[in-house]
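dumping this here so i dont lose it
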């Protein structure tokens, strides 16, 4: 009799889980929250390439953080998009570092308090020659992967022989 109860409970739990997933998939704000949460987890303590086409994780994080911190959006409009973004949270304080390779400069951004939408900026700081080499290497590797991917996806019309 206990085996039957366990099987029924397991089956009921699976049905409820399946129903919950179906309902959540139709709810756009929840799926956006999941995506934002996933990218926040993936971005923690990482240096991310910021590329618009195809959009990189760094690009998506900057867009997301610009919505959270309006001053960041203004800063990006003024200075332009960085080449790389580093992001971390320490003791409930959110930090971003924006790396600009052309000028070999970086800016640090820090949330003023955990519950505010204010962020303060410091810098520019000089990027060391070693950091520039490493970041340029990352960028070249990423560009190489994009080139490989785009060349492996040839359009059917381009691959068809001429008649």
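and the seq i came up w/
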């Amino acid at each position: 009799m206990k085996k039957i109860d366990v099987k029924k409970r397991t089956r009921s739990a699976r049905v409820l889980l399946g129903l919950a997933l179906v309902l959540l998939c139709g709810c756009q704000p929840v799926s956006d929250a999941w995506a934002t949460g996933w990218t926040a987890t993936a971005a923690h303590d990482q240096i991310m390439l910021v590329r618009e086409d195809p959009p990189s994780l760094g690009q998506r994080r900057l867009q997301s953080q610009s919505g959270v911190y309006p001053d960041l959006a203004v800063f990006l409009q003024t200075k332009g998009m960085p080449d790389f973004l580093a992001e971390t949270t320490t003791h409930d304080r959110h930090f971003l570092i924006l790396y600009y390779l052309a000028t070999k400069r970086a800016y640090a951004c820090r949330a003023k308090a955990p519950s505010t939408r204010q962020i303060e900026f410091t810098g520019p700081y000089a990027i060391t020659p070693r950091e520039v080499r490493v970041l340029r290497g990352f960028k070249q590797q990423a560009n190489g992967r994009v080139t490989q991917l785009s060349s492996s996806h040839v359009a059917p019309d381009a691959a068809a022989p001429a008649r």
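The chain has six helices and five strands.
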